[in-house]
Amino acid sequence: MSTRPTEEAPINPQVGSKFFSAPLEIRQMIYGYIFPYGVHAYLRQGKLHSSACVEPRANGDYDGGERRDESSDWRTPGPIWSRRLQSSWGPHWKCEEVALSMGRSWEAAGDADMVMLRACKRMYIDIMTFIVDIAAVHVTDLDTLGCLLQEATTVSPGTWTVSGYLATALPLVRNLSVVLRLPLTTCKILESSSDHGSAPTSTTNATAWFRLCPAIARLKRLLRLHIWLDHDGESSWSVVNERAILSPLTALTDISGLDISVSLPHLHHRYETPERHFVKQWPSPPFTIERRLRQRYHVVETDPGRFDVSYQADFPYLYNYYRDLSEDEVE
Ligand SMILES: [Zn+2]
Questions:
Q1: Which strand (E) or helix (H) includes residue 241?
Q2: Would you list the domain boundaries of the chain?
Q3: Which pLDDT does position 4 carry in this prediction?
Q4: Which of 58, 112, 193, 222 could bond to 200 as cystine, CB 3.0-4.6 Å?
């Protein structure tokens, strides 16, 4: 969303508006149709911004082939498919294109939603109240999460800019979605730090994750926390120690009334171990785990400046085969 209404003029209560004369419940039902999947919060030039989420199945089984555009063949990615496959927004790659105004078809849909936010300050506050009370707020990087949590301790209402309002409103969120596609090296650092029983010392995403995850407890109104995790390498998810990566969540599991769920890629049964992975035969963790298909198409640099697509099948290997069968054939 563009953050254009930044003037510090007083907020017009719009007392003559028929829309605002409708009960709050009716207005929130309308907002629910406009923002069915919530909004994204992200940093741009050091300030918080928001944009519409346009992905209805962020926890779905996607292999990356659905991101291919008409300029790419299956072996050689064009710039668009290449960028999408490497997107740190993971399953929200369409939402990234909306946020960064990349001119795709779904941007028009997302932008049309956000036009309502630009109507007036009263409308903006009304919608943001709906979002923090009812809808989901998606965060796809640790810098934004850190900003949101930092603001949670320094709320200072009064000044009115869109970014400033976001900074005070978002810490009141009830439904937070954290989507992290971490570098594989970061996952390895987290594992080694956990082995030594200490937080990582390097100033990386690993440090931020160990620091920020327990700090989510500062969000006093939070009722639902959903975490989507993956690494950005071609290797199976099973190469990482998911118990180590999710160990900072332990600090949140004692919070009364907080529902925590985690979306992780499928494990490869040959490589899973109960010491490193949440396997079915062992006691369940104090949060819900959902498994999904992992991205299989990856961009690799085969020669300096030359990029190809690498397809790495992962467990379950026959997923694509069965997906393409008709129901009659399955029977
Ligand atoms: Zn999204």
A1: none
A2: 18-330
A3: 45
A4: 193
How far, in Å, from the CA of 2 to the mean position of ligand 1? Answer: 16
Instruction: Please name which of 225, 224, 223 lies closest in space to residue 213, comparing C-alpha atoms.
Output: 225
* pLDDT for residue 41 is more than 80: yes
User: Separation of 36 CA from ligand 1 center, angstroms?
Assistant: 10
Residue with tokens 């810490």: 171
pLDDT digits (tens, 9 = 90+) for 257-305: 999 999 999 998 888 899 999 998 778 899 999 999 999 999 998 888 7
Categorise residue 46: left if φ over 0, alpha if ψ from -120 to 50, beta otherwise: left
Strand pairing class (47-52; 39-44): antiparallel
The 8-class DSSP code of residue 221 comes to T
Structure ipTM? 0.99
Question: How far is CA 194 from its chain centroid?
Answer: 24
Instruction: Extract the tokens encoding 46.
Output: 């050091």
Ligand 1 centre to CA of 25 (Å) is 25
9 CA → ligand 1 middle, Å: 32
Answer whether the bond into residue 285 is a cis peptide, omega within 30°: no
CB-CB contact of 260 with 225 (8 Å): yes
Per the listing, tokens 């928001």 go with: 50
Yes or no: say if 163 and 48 are a contact pair by the CB < 8 Å rule: yes
Q: Exposed e or buried b for every residue in 108-123, given b needs 16+ CB within 10 A?
A: eebbebbebbeebbbb
Exposed, middle or buried: residue 264 (CB in 10 Å: 0-12, 13-18, 19+)?
Answer: buried
Nearest to 146 by CA among 102, 67, 205, 225: 205
pLDDT tens, residue by residue, 112-145: 556 667 777 888 888 889 999 999 999 999 999 9
- Dist. CA 40 → ligand 1 center (Å): 6
Query: Closest by alpha carbon to 22, among 131, 126, 165?
Result: 126
Residues around ligand 1, an ion, CB closer than 5 A: 53, 55, 92, 95
